[in-house]
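Below: protein 1.
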Amino acid sequence: MKSACGMLSEAEIVFSIATKYPVEQDSDKEIEEQQYANKQSFTTKEPKSINLDFEKDVFNSVKTVFKGIHVYGCFFHLTQNFWRKMIKIPGFLDNYYKKESKFKEAFMTHKVLCYVPESDVVYVFKQLKSQLDKSFDPFFKYIEKYYIGKKKKVARYQFPTWNLYNRVLEELPRTNNSVESWHNAFTTNEKKHLNINALVEKMRLEQSNTENNCTRIRSGHLFNRDVDQI
């Protein structure tokens, strides 16, 4: 089962409630586009933005369906990408947790790129690059290729896709962690491959819980959100 990993920022209550449960065997561009088209048909208002994992095919499918809507990458998944690349640097893990580690400082400071104005991203990136030695070059080349770009080559994910400066000012979510939390809760204590009857029963129970939550929201109940879901 594959849950809808995108988050539509139409209203705050959407962050806590799953509304569709698509089931897929394999990823397919036409199927994904149809799923997002189905989602669009159920929305009464156009979302302000859509927050996704960093999967290029999914980005393209969403942009095809939700034309003109700002599509963002999840900050948590972005930092995961940074981490996976950094741990390939020789000596990184051995030294990361040491006091005043240059490796830990390098990893943490590169998150700053997401929070400076887009017009300052290149300048800040160059400043960070100048402060570290040659052992970090593979990481810098990765950042440049996928997130910064060069004069003659556009990055795979351009600044508006991952920069959070404006989202923070507008108090919009930086991650899709609330959706990930729902998925984890849904699959907890379940077999890896449920049979169809067990899956349908699980979805019926989830739908019942969703309808109960909707009733509580309409009656004025406010759900608290954890900091890591913002």
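Below: protein 2.
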Amino acid sequence: MAASLWIDTDPSGLVWTGLDCDDDLALLAALALHGRGAIELDSVSICGGNAPLRHTWDDAARLWEFVGWKRTEPSSQAHEDGRGIFKPTMGRGWNEMQPGVSLLRLYHRLFGDDPVTTRGGAGDSTADAEHALSLYLRSSSDDDHIGANQTSRPRRRNVLMLGPPTNLARALSRMSEKTQLDVTEHAHIFLMGGELTNSTLDLNFRSDRRSARQIIQADVPKTIIPIQTCAQVAITSEHLESFGCSAESDLAVCALMSKMRQQVTLMPLFVNPSVKERLPPGGRWTASPGIDRGFVPWDLVALLAVSHPHEFSEWEYHRVSFPECAGGEPCDGTMRSLEDIGPAFGGSDWRGVVRVPHKVRNETRLVELMLDLVGNITTENERPHMSWGYIGDLKGIGIATLSFLYISFRLRRLNR
């Protein structure tokens, strides 16, 4: 039986000003893995991160409506609309975080992060993601999932965090210490995030370093897929051309083509140079040869670490921490690697301990798998449009400013 998987994510592939598109790609790949029986995709929850929650929520709702995902066996935690399509649940946004980029913090102060739900049929804005997530983790040892004879082992529950870890931290806060011990027996947490050279963290952990600290200190089995592992893989324009997207194509991934091309152009200029600094030449990790002309598919790498662990090597355990500071979060935006435990760990106390897959065995093979998965989802629905994101908000300010200047000019003319 495939392990159950809950994905918490911050998709922005349908938003021009969103910071990346790999969350959307990971969702498509997860649907393909679910269809092939490699995972049992239980539910999806949405947080802010790459964009404010109102943008990521709108992105998820439109993507979900576009692919029209239906489950053959309903999940106890998933929410369904009248057509039998299972919907994402809404979690926390920037209001509960500390955005790790100064421009994002300024934007948040100007516009806030209150979602405007206009597509209720595609998403459930009334659902409490952290509550549903805590129920999902607790139910790993419930009688309903063990069976009437109480002899079968409960199905393993995995949680994959592809955005800031806020929703999961809140879910763990709802649990008693005893409940967390029960979760330890039957659940595993995977987090796309972390940095192993004591440099500045990735955006996920830096956006809510307090929640990252809480999860790392929890006595629950956990794996991080850090910057150093993800940067061993890159998607280039040659890979994008392999989809053969056209106006008539029914591949769902073609709806993300504009955003993927944007990422191929911008990431080598603005993000990848700092990423390469965290994989110094001659060190343990080697950056992808395509990192100077493509984007890192962070969340696809993390997803495949869950579904295809054999594609990774040098799995080791480390003791890490997130030092606190007097000035409050996000502090210096770092994670400290305190101790290399090695490939074996007794598992008696997971507080501060994480498992890490250090190496991608074969980048070419992993990219081929990614392309195969995201290119597996087809739909007859009309492609969703790209939304303007921040530009729409700033356009409103621009119009208001011009209107004010025009009225002021007219008043001055009248008073002459």
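The chain is about 40% helix and 15% strand.
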